[in-house]
Specification:
2 domains, Aspartate Aminotransferase, domain 2, O-acetylhomoserine aminocarboxypropyltransferase/cysteine synthase, binds pyridoxal-5'-phosphate, Aspartate Aminotransferase, domain 1, alpha/beta
């Protein structure tokens, strides 16, 4: 089908990027389980390798099943192109790779997925890159952190672990003024709840491992490009604006215009970093995306009910869900996240660390796992798991104090989830 802008989200989540298989008429997207593609002739091969013609060479770069997923995610996010890769963390490196270089930095939110904090504070140093962490609600602090070596601002739309919601438009304005891109990790919101490009983001990254696939089966990632950033406006982005020696001096921005970032991601990023998504993985994610809006509606509905129930319970100190009328983010949710604040939040249990551990052990439907965005309800006690290495002060600052658990509310019956929490809280506070 042609992806006319007139189609709604529910139609696009099923059809965008897909067409009946030209060889067999297969209605569902086939899993093209192949590593290589036969060239028509030597001229065709040469044109493909010179990037003069678009086509399939080798599945480290492109694969027809993965290509359908790329087009679908790009369409749902309102971008011009997307590159899929092997995990959400791969997507983050792939997004930064064309922008950064030794001595360059990214200004990043303090409210991020724990693994991202580690990737940004530790591992990227090996490339000579660094991250400056700031509270993105403090716009003056963000502005002050941007220096001549800053190459991007990075945040999450609905942010870990507390489910805070970010003012994307305000950060996009700061990024624009500094001539750098804003990268938004839209994993927890999904394009159903938030479309960062419409709010001014340059790039959107995803862990497709989470809600997009939706059922906890495969890891994957994606980088979506808005196509709106002028990579040649200053000399900060030579990978995109200047001659690329590996392609006979081709300039990506000059040659591919709004698709420069996407083409670079495939022709240089996947070619040399090799963080490729496999076609089986793409298949599972395509299956998941077909029901994204339906699942997200239920995730939000359940999260709203459960957060409201928890907030009223005497055994609970506080609930951070931005979808609650009592949340300091309530107005921002209404303005920028009108379909809801997602299904990820934390709550504090009276009785602290010991009560949290007892609660997690006593739950029967909720699974104790280091994951989010599954059909199943999930819980984790960060202080005894993901944030165990941090000092109590650091745990507090990350919103992962010893008395706090993080939940990812699934799409089971809300009444069953409430009953499960009720019996487990009784045991935790006994
Ligand atoms: C899970 C997650 C990641 C990392 O994704 P992987 O697929 O596990 O590599 C990044 N950001 C957010 C918000 C996540 O939830």
């Amino acid at each position: 089908m042609s992806d006319g802008p007139t189609y709604g989200f529910d139609t696009l989540q099923i059809h965008a990027g897909a067409r009946p298989d030209p060889a067999t008429g297969a209605r569902q997207t086939p899993i093209y389980q192949t590593t290589a593609y036969v060239f028509r002739d030597a001229d065709h091969a040469a044109a493909l390798f010179n990037l003069q013609e678009v086509g399939y060479i080798y599945s480290r770069l492109t694969n027809p099943t993965v290509a359908v997923l790329q087009e679908r995610i790009a369409t749902l996010e309102g971008g011009v192109g997307a590159v899929c890769c092997s995990s959400g963390h791969a997507a983050q490196i792939m997004a930064l790779f064309p922008l950064m270089g030794p001595g360059r930095n990214v200004v990043a939110s303090t409210r991020l997925y724990g693994g991202t904090v580690t990737q940004f504070s530790q591992s990227i140093k090996r490339f000579g890159w660094s991250a400056k962490f700031v509270d993105t609600d403090d716009l003056e602090a963000v502005k002050a952190a941007i220096d001549d070596d800053t190459r991007a601002i990075f945040c999450e739309s609905i942010a870990n672990p507390g489910g805070y919601v970010t003012d994307i438009r305000a950060l996009a304005d700061l990024a624009d003024a500094a001539g750098i891109p804003l990268i938004v990790d839209n994993t927890s919101a999904t394009p159903y709840l938030c479309r960062p490009i419409e709010q001014g983001a340059t790039l959107v990254v995803h862990s497709t491992t989470k809600y997009l696939t939706g059922n906890g089966t495969v890891t994957g990632g994606a980088i979506v490009d808005s196509g709106r950033f002028d990579w040649s406006a200053n000399d900060k982005f030579p990978s995109l604006s200047e001659a690329e020696p590996a392609y006979h001096g081709l300039k990506f921005h000059e040659t591919f215009g709004p698709l420069a970032f996407t083409f670079h991601g495939i022709a240089v990023g996947l070619r040399d970093l090799g963080m490729t998504m496999n076609p089986q993985g793409a298949h599972y994610t395509l299956m998941g995306i077909e029901t994204l809006s339906l699942r997200m509606q239920r995730h939000v509905e359940n999260a709203e009910k459960i957060a409201a129930w928890l907030e009223k319970d005497d055994r609970v100190d506080y609930v951070t869900y931005a979808g609650l009328p009592s949340s300091p983010y309530h107005d921002r949710v209404k303005a920028q996240y009108p379909k809801g604040a997602g299904a990820l939040f934390t709550f504090a249990v009276k009785g602290g660390y010991d009560a949290c551990v007892k609660l997690v052990n006593a739950l029967e439907i909720f699974s104790h796992v280091a994951n989010l965005g599954d059909t199943r309800s999930l819980i984790i006690h960060s202080a005894s798991t993901t944030h165990r290495q941090l000092t109590p002060e650091q745990q507090q600052a990350a919103g992962a104090g010893p008395n706090v658990v993080r939940v990812s509310i699934g799409i089971e019956d809300a009444d069953d989830l409430i009953a499960d929490l009720d019996q487990a809280l009784a045991k935790a506070s006994a």
